[in-house]
Write a structure and sequence with these properties.
alpha+beta; about 30% helix
């Protein structure tokens, strides 16, 4: 997740950490550049679900959403690490196991939950979004716990996270 006007992530969490953190940091940096290029023309002040931002390879895919406040949210999905539940009856039998692809609608509940957690963080009177330094960008424990909960419980086909 990146803060408006700042090209450094506000918060980064890996679920589960399958690749080195540096590799994800480089991926987020390149995806932020793509996001800024896509948003270069003046856009309306509405929520924008940009969908698939970049498919790095057959394994990693980056999805993005921009809130009406300009806050950018990015989710990188590792298709090999995230598996479907074995009782996924709505999907063909060959689709169980590793993910074979995601629709943009599959990530909307996760983005909605992340945006709600971010709004709650901003409502905290002790959080100063304009403060400088790593401590200010460290956010709160409640925010980090909510992001972790969203990352660990999200699955394809969930309507609410």
């Amino acid at each position: 997740m990146a803060s408006p006007g700042i090209n450094t992530p506000l918060h980064t969490t890996l679920f589960p950490p399958t690749l080195p953190r540096l590799q994800y940091a480089l991926l987020l940096s390149s995806c932020t550049d793509l996001l800024l290029a896509r948003l270069a023309p003046p856009a309306p002040a509405l929520d924008q679900d940009l969908g698939l931002l970049q498919a790095v390879d057959e394994r990693l895919a980056c999805y993005a959403r921009v809130a009406n406040s300009g806050t950018r949210f990015m989710v990188v999905v590792d298709m090999y690490a995230r598996t479907l539940p074995p009782d996924a009856t709505a999907l063909p039998p060959r689709a169980t196991g590793a993910l074979v692809g995601l629709r943009d609608a599959d990530l909307k509940p996760a983005f909605r939950a992340l945006h709600t957690a971010y709004v709650r963080l901003l409502q905290n009177p002790f959080y100063d979004p304009d403060a400088a330094g790593a401590r200010a960008r460290g956010t709160s424990r409640a925010f980090e716990a909510e992001v972790r909960r969203v990352g660990e419980t999200w699955a394809v086909g969930m309507a609410v996270v």
